[in-house]
Amino acid sequence: MLDNTRDIINNLRKRSEIASRIGLIKVKNGKGIRDRDREIEIIRELGYDRFTQLVLNTLFEYSINYEIEKSVNGQFHVDKIENDNEYIVINGTEKGLISMLPMVIPLWSTVFVKNNTDIFDILSYNGIHLINKEFTNPDMYISMKKHDGSGIIIDNGTMMLSRFFIENRENIYMITIR
Fold it and tell me: How far apart are CA 43 and CA 26, in angstroms?
């Protein structure tokens, strides 16, 4: 069993290297990090059963997280400019994008969520330090359905990560979701 686990880990490392190369190609071609149409195509081809579909979705999320980490720690590539702010864009369902926040925001951050039980519930299962109250002077805002120049915006199936957020990530301790 340990040998099988070791093989799985080694194959995941190889897959990460391939995902990194694919990510560079996407950046060079001006594409976003997530390609949901391609994911669905792969699930249809390989998703023989529910277990396989869950594993594939986990691999997709891992690859996206890896590409985000490369963007966070590497060169910023612009997918969209809005109100003079530059953003990386990730596509997905609203619930899926909210579930990705723990992979994106700094682990040491405190997130303030006022009266939004859906977001609070999703994030509480992901190890985020949450406080259910309003905080008016955070280091950064995450906006839901409001394009106001926040560090992260989630709206209409997209998550937009701003250059400000990416470049200042290590100094962000207090985040308010509004």
Answer: 20
Domain carrying residue 166: 80-177
- 3-class SS of residue 142: strand
Sign of CA dihedral 93, 58, 120, 82: negative
In this model, does residue 71 exceed pLDDT 60?
A: no
pLDDT top residue among 32 and 21 = 21
Q: Do residues 67 and 155 share a domain?
A: no
Distance CA 77, CA 83 (A): 17
If one counts the domains in the chain, the total is 2
pTM of the model: 0.60
Task: Spell out the residues 6+ positions from residue 98 whose beta carbon is closer than 8 angstroms to its own.
Answer: 119, 122, 123, 154
pLDDT tens-digit map of 133-171:
888 899 999 988 888 878 999 988 888 888 888 888 888
